[in-house]
Amino acid sequence: MNFDNKELKDLLESVRFVYGYDFTDYAEASVKRRIDHFMNTRKITALEKLGKMILHDEKLFEEFIQEVSVTVTEMFRDPVFYKSIRENVLKRLATYPFIKIWIAGCATGEEIYSIAILLQEEGLLNRSVIYATDINQKSLQIAKDGVYPVENMKAYTANYQKAHGKKSFSEYYKAKYNSVMFDKSLKQNIVFAAHNLAVDKSFNEFQLIICRNVLIYFNQKLQNKVINLFYESLCPFGFLGLGNKESLLFTDRKKYFEEIDRKEKIFMKK
Amino acid sequence: MQGITQKYNAIAIGTSAGGLFALSGILDELPAGYPIPIMVVQHRSKDQKDLLEEVLQNKCKIRIKQADEKETIKGGFVYVAPPDYHLLVEADKTFSLSSDEAVRFSRPSIDVLFETAAIVYKDTLAGIILTGASSDGAAGITVIKEYGGLTIAQDPAEAQFPFMPESSIQTKAVQHIWTLSEIKKFLSEISNI
Ligand SMILES: C[S@@+](CC[C@H](N)C(=O)[O-])C[C@H]1O[C@@H](n2cnc3c(N)ncnc32)[C@H](O)[C@@H]1O
């Protein structure tokens, strides 16, 4: 699984050139593992061969994106984070007449519906707009549909309760066969869009940006760039929520943010 | 333990059931300034937070810390993989974390740490498999061997859960089958090379 570094670089460069997806500043060990996994499952033996294949076969490239952009997610992942968002952030956002939220790297959408539920319970959903973005089109489509496997609901219900949910979780969805569909009212103010944090610019100003478990896949340089992008996209005193293991520690903007919840990685733009 | 003259720049340890006891058994007497960085994957539940580090720290002199994303790997520390994330070693000797799918039902996975560490530390890595009830680590120990590193398994006769060291030994990639006290002696000797 150790690739020749030059060959790997060449592959990522040509992917960038042909498809506009830039993985060159992703954390290398992790990208290598994903590519190795992709090659193993498809019995592709050499990196060079993989390069030729994905550059000529758009469908295969889509599958490649699926593999390289880790899609793992869940509802109310790290429940204490959501509890803290409710108590420390939404209470303050309630003073705004209109609330704009950006969920970057939303994957298949479980995180979006979790935030929408919080907003609903705090009476803020009607005056909020959630911009939900990801580079992975296939994931975005699943997010839009809002249909998830019923077998996940037990774990999500437990998470919801730990996040101090106010209702019975099953009120938010309808079960049909082996799937559940989340209530349409949750979706009313969500805008889904493709956005690539590695190459695209800021597109609005937000009171809250949530980007969890995305930065860990980037190298320091790209992390820094993305934190700058978030800084520019936040209004004064806007909030930033990162993943449990992510921090501003190694970024230039560290001093421009105040810690609101140290453990849950919630920050406020100074 | 004569004949070990190789210099080691990193030690990777993998364990699951029974691991806490085994880990404190080999780490408890290491001095605070132990020069070789030690990286540990202990299978753990994701609700556990920092409990493992705290309990281990109470028994050890060397600093025990949960590995942070992008942290530089240094001597004087035992780095423990956080619950629910894979721990990976990058070429510039920093850590990265990943929440991609579980490997052999585990996240963190021993295989992931061992494989990425082997690529970076090559023949200066020593990999150790301790007690456990899973076969995680067997693929990783093979990769360490391929890259010229040293491979050690706890003697299954002594291990609280022998399945994990046995699985590694079955790959034929394990060079030494040692008891905890022999592993402990090894750790102390290689720090003087
Ligand atoms: C592990 S998921 C995290 C999902 C969710 N935020 C959570 O914490 O559960 C990582 C997501 O980041 C997305 N991603 C990776 N690189 C990206 C980029 N350059 N721009 C935007 N999204 C990206 C992936 O497609 C994937 O959906």
- Structural class of chain B, by secondary structure, is alpha/beta
Biggest beta-sheet profile of chain A: 7 strands, mixed
Approximately what portion of the residues of chain B adopt beta-strand conformation? 15-25%
Low-confidence stretches of chain B: none
Q: Helicity level of chain B, as a percent range?
A: 25-40%
- The overall strand count of chain A is 10
**What share of the residues of chain A does DSSP label as strand, in percent?**
15-25%
Number of helical segments of chain A? 10
Helical content of chain A stands at 40-55%
- The number of distinct structural domains of chain B comes to 1
Enter the CATH topology name of chain B: Rossmann fold
CATH architecture of chain B: 3-Layer(aba) Sandwich
The helix-and-strand class of chain A reads alpha/beta
What count of helical segments of chain B does DSSP give?
Answer: 6
Indicate the low-confidence ranges of chain A by residue numbers: none
Provide the CATH top-level class of chain B.
Answer: Alpha Beta
* Large-scale geometry of chain B: globular
